[in-house]
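Could you help me review a protein record that somebody else here produced? My question to you is simply how this chain folds and whether the tokens agree. Thanks in advance; the entry in question is below:
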Amino acid sequence: MEKITLGGGCFWCLEAVFSKLNGVESVLSGYCGGHFPSPTYSQVCSGTTGHAEVIEILLNPEVISLTEILEIFFLLHDPTTLNRQGADAGTQYRSAIFYHTETQREISLDVIARTHAAGIWKEPIVTEVTPIPAFYPAEDYHQKYYERNPNQGYCRAVIAPKMTKLQKLFLEKIKK
């Protein structure tokens, strides 16, 4: 098993998408990259702790590679907006890869370079690529949020379109 930690805006969105993929054993929403130990959601939302909303993915590399995870990551969030995803603004919503090994750093930089070269995004990719600092799991009510609240307004307006995009682009990778 391999672990990677990704930030791409609201962790509810990322958790919903990545939990549906074959080879992803678990997804945990949490906080990473800040200077304040064991932050709460309200503290992170204040923008003063330096943390990003992230997901920690445990994947089986024999089923899905880190490269595939990152290719999906770069298509399902906007890695060109600094500290913003849609209406969500602040450092807590930054695009980030918190790598656990040097190989993950190299793969991340390669995928970023190939994504840029492919012209998928018109603006430069601003995704932060840094070693994993402390990871703090988010409160229980954030875990599996979309699964438990699919009809909530944010879920319908923001997450559901990402789920549709996942099905359209990566149907063969989705759990049956």
User: Anything to note?
Assistant: Residues 2-173 form a domain with the Peptide Methionine Sulfoxide Reductase; Chain A fold (CATH 3.30.1060.10). The chain has six helices and eight strands.
